[in-house]
Design brief:
The complex is a heterodimer. Chain A is of the alpha/beta class. Chain A is 34% helix and 22% strand. Chain B is α/β, with parallel strands linked by helices. The chains are: A alpha/beta, B alpha/beta.
């Protein structure tokens, strides 16, 4: 058993109070009818030194009330496992930055791998923990804090990132509850002058961006190889592989250089093997997948187009909902699946390729997969350590923590004892209102 | 016949039955009536005393012995008995168990039954709610039943004027009779004694039956206790252990005073404790009464 507030045991000193009262108090005189008082002279009550305690049972109950109340104030944790959890007791939400800048080399691997190792270590140190991987940790702060609020004990929010300038601001951190501690852990990355390369393929050809970042500038060397065989990583699955509407929709897409590191597919209602595909999908489990879905969800054109969509087929039980129509029905859902031997994020569309919603979906996917995003991650400057130190703070014990102790059961015992004390007190004869005291020595 | 305990007798709600049981127990013991009445059957001679009626002088014996003797006679005629029962609140003690009042009711009923069975007239005088309540002395079984029912209905009340009750009891007797006062004699001690003496001097046979409970004799309290006077309601905090010797002395003085004054005034005195079976207490009382009446040379009344 562990006591959260052991100083409360000093309250046991109050036990002397009822003991003194029962020792020094004159007690109760019962009233007895008597035929005549004519032969009874008034007694002389001498001041006596009390050596015996009267109403022992009542005294014991009163002592019990005080002792149990003091124990309750000491906030006991009766179960050892729970006690350990709460004392070391730190609920920790760990945000891992999975943005492109974290893919730079660090300690023999990438910064992201180093961050994930740190996250696992930090999660293992505490009781309840939650690891969130996101390309934009600032946007996940509110959700992480919401999870922390539901936890008991101390709470801490950890952000593992390289902290590029602009990736996190004081305003973002202000959304975190004051009692929640904030810990900002910078993940060391390779020197800025190590070149990185992003290969983007589009309908226009293959573009390679070779970037070299320094603390003061970023050099990007573009090269284009039109002669390479173009392979579209966006697979459109509809009634026929040469669906005119699908090809037209693809053709009107914004021509952006794309990050082709990851493959996606869109499955339209007319696709013959759609049912079979829907049965073998899995949950999204890669950070880039959730990043992609998050970008689609926040795409304003996608949202507007989905709102006007007319549902051709139900998507209620397939994957993660990306967009809904005005009636709240899913218009686009996302899941992971292997198609043609390649792991893809598969978007199930409730509308046919010729619908505006499908066009908007294809365009939104192009925007989400644009190379512009990885390029932004090449921002060479980072938040200074002093700023991070200023934003950090220690966690504190929250008020909800005290209510989780087992003291509440002791308070119930206190109430029961108080009831018993009242009954015992009422059972006593009425107390003598005035006692005639005659001091023998004075007399 | 075994003696019924006080508790058993008290548990009998039918007062007539209780009285009959007690009286039958007394008869089994061969006791004579305590009521000495007017008689024509010669009993004995006693030396003449100034004031004796000359018509009871035995002139023949005077002629033979040259001494004056008065003839005395055994009772053969009816006697009037008035029972005065104390109904003051002090009789409602102890709060639990057999109270002095219930004990007094049983003793009254037994005496009334005994007297009625021997052909005497019996009446009741008491006080209820400040007013005298009485039944004149008459004989006969219907009257006895009515009397016992009346005794049974009596309740303790605050007010009790023993002097008035005793005086009125004597007034109601058509001729000289017996007045039995059953009380704890706490109230108006001097007035009561004076009135009983006056009644006795008028020629009535006055019997003083004092009823006490063991608790008020022993004062069995050892702690601080608040005693409440049953009549006045006054409360007094006493230390039971320290007050006991003084109380015992005062109580003993009081009982001695009652006994000695009764003896001095030629009044029969009997002390009954409520833990003594009524039959035993009555037997002892009757034995003592019989003895004292013989030693005093009673009957105090004679008749031709």
């Amino acid at each position: 058993m562990i006591w959260r507030n052991p100083w409360a045991w000093l309250g046991l000193a109050t036990l002397a109070l009822p003991a003194l009262i029962h020792l020094l108090g004159r007690g109760h005189a019962r009233v007895q009818p008597f035929p005549s008082l004519r032969f009874l002279e008034r007694s002389k009550f001498l001041p006596t030194r009390r050596t015996r305690i009267h109403d022992v049972a009542l005294l014991l109950v009163r002592l019990g009330i005080l002792a149990v109340a003091v124990a309750a104030l000491a906030q006991p944790l009766l179960r050892a496992s729970r006690a350990r959890t709460t004392t070391t007791a730190l609920a920790r939400a760990i945000l891992v930055d999975t943005s492109a800048s974290m893919r730079r080399a660090a300690n023999g691997g990438t910064a992201l791998e180093a961050a994930r190792r740190d996250a696992q270590r930090l999660a293992a140190e505490t009781g309840p923990s939650l690891v969130i991987e996101s390309g934009s940790p600032a946007r996940e702060l509110r959700g992480a804090d919401a999870w922390l609020v539901r936890q008991s004990g101390r709470r801490e929010l950890v952000v593992l990132s390289d902290f590029q300038s602009g990736s996190l601001t004081a305003t973002d951190l202000r959304a975190v509850q004051p009692a929640t501690g904030i810990r900002l852990v910078r993940v060391p990355t390779s020197a800025f002058n190590a070149p990185s390369e992003v290969v983007a393929r589009s309908m226009l050809g293959t573009t390679v961006a070779r970037m070299t970042a320094t603390p003061t500038s970023t050099d990007i060397e573009w090269s284009s190889r039109d002669s390479e065989t173009r392979r579209d990583d966006l697979l459109l699955l509809s009634a026929t592989p040469t669906d005119v509407a699908a090809r037209a929709a693809r053709a009107v897409g914004v021509r952006l250089p794309l990050d082709t590191a990851h493959a996606v597919a869109i499955v339209f209602p007319s696709y013959a093997q759609r049912g079979e595909l829907a049965h073998r999908v899995a949950q999204l489990d890669q950070p880039w997948m959730t990043d992609l879905v998050a970008r689609l969800r926040s795409d304003s054109l996608m949202i507007e187009a989905a709102r006007e969509a007319t549902i051709a087929t139900s998507l209620d039980s397939i994957g993660l909902v990306v967009a809904r129509n005005a009636a709240g029905r899913p218009v686009v859902t996302a899941a992971k699946s292997d198609i043609d031997g390649q792991t893809r994020v598969v978007f199930f569309s409730a509308t046919e390729p010729r619908s505006p919603t499908s066009v908007a979906l294809i365009a939104a996917l192009d925007r989400a997969r644009s190379i512009a995003t990885p390029l932004a991650e090449l921002e060479p400057t980072t938040l200074p350590d002093q700023t991070l130190a200023a934003w950090q703070r220690a966690s504190s014990v929250t008020t909800s923590q005290s209510s989780d102790s087992d003291g509440r059961w002791l308070w119930i015992v206190v109430l029961a004892l108080l009831g018993l004390e009242t009954l015992m007190r009422r059972a006593l004869p009425p107390k003598v209102a005035a006692v005639e005291m005659v001091n023998d020595r004075a007399a | 016949m075994s003696v019924l305990s006080a508790e058993v007798i008290a548990a009998i709600h039918d007062l007539e039955l209780a009285a009959r049981l007690i009286v039958e127990g007394l008869r089994t013991g061969g006791h004579r009536s305590p009521f000495h009445g007017y008689t024509t059957e010669f009993r004995q001679h006693r030396p003449y005393r100034a004031g004796d009626d000359l018509k009871y002088l035995d002139w023949k014996l005077y002629a033979r012995s040259d001494r004056l003797y008065t003839r005395q006679f055994r009772e053969t005629t009816n006697l009037s008995v008035m029972i005065a029962l104390d109904t003051s609140a002090s009789m409602a003690f102890p709060p639990q168990g057999l109270t002095k009042f219930r004990y007094g009711q049983i003793v009254s009923a037994a005496l009334a039954y005994l007297a009625s069975e021997e052909g005497h007239a019996v009446g009741l005088m008491t006080m209820q709610h400040g007013k005298l309540a009485y039944i004149p002395a008459r004989g006969g079984r219907p009257h006895l039943r009515s009397l016992l029912a009346r005794i049974d209905r009596l309740e303790t009340t605050d007010a009790w004027d023993p002097a008035r009750v005793v005086a009125r009891s004597a007034q109601l007797l058509q001729r000289r009779g017996v007045v039995v006062v059953i009380s704890d004699f706490y109230d108006a001690e001097d007035e009561t004694r004076r009135e009983m003496r006056r009644v006795a001097q008028r020629g009535h046979d006055v019997a003083m039956v004092q009823i006490v409970s063991p608790q008020e004799l022993s004062l069995p309290f050892t702690e601080h206790i608040k005693l409440e006077d049953l009549e006045s309601g006054e409360q007094r905090l006493v230390d039971g252990a320290s007050i006991a010797p003084q109380y015992h002395a005062a109580m003993s003085d009081f009982l001695d005073r009652c006994r000695s004054s009764a003896l001095r005034d030629a009044i029969d005195y009997g002390l009954m404790q409520t833990d003594t079976p009524p039959e035993v207490a009555l037997r002892q009382y009757l034995l003592r009464r019989s003895h004292t009446s013989t030693s005093r040379g009673t009957p105090r009344a004679v008749a031709t």
